[in-house]
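Entry 12.
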Amino acid sequence: MFGIGGTEFIVLVIILAVLIGPEQIPSIVRHVQKFIKEITKARSDFQQSVRQDETLRSLKDTVDEVKRGVRQQVDDVTAGVRADLKKLEEVIAEHEEKEEKNDDSSK
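Predicted 3D structure (tokens):
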């Protein structure tokens, strides 16, 4: 942890014992442990948040892709229906013309 070897750690403990007194070391160690625990939790929360953001972004991309596909299908169906309506209108117009001719010729 922090790139400190065993010998360096022992030297730091001895220096701390001399500077702050041996009775204060357990209290300081507890505070340092608590601080490290809080930092670790914050890092974990941040990583989880990033993963959730990536998941949401991926989900949004998927929804957008599906939306484009549905929109394209709707456009295709609409074009087909319009073409069929145009043909139907032409057939109706032809039929009406034939009826008018039949009515004119029968008079």
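Annotation: The two ends are 108 Å apart (CA to CA). The chain has two helices and no strands.
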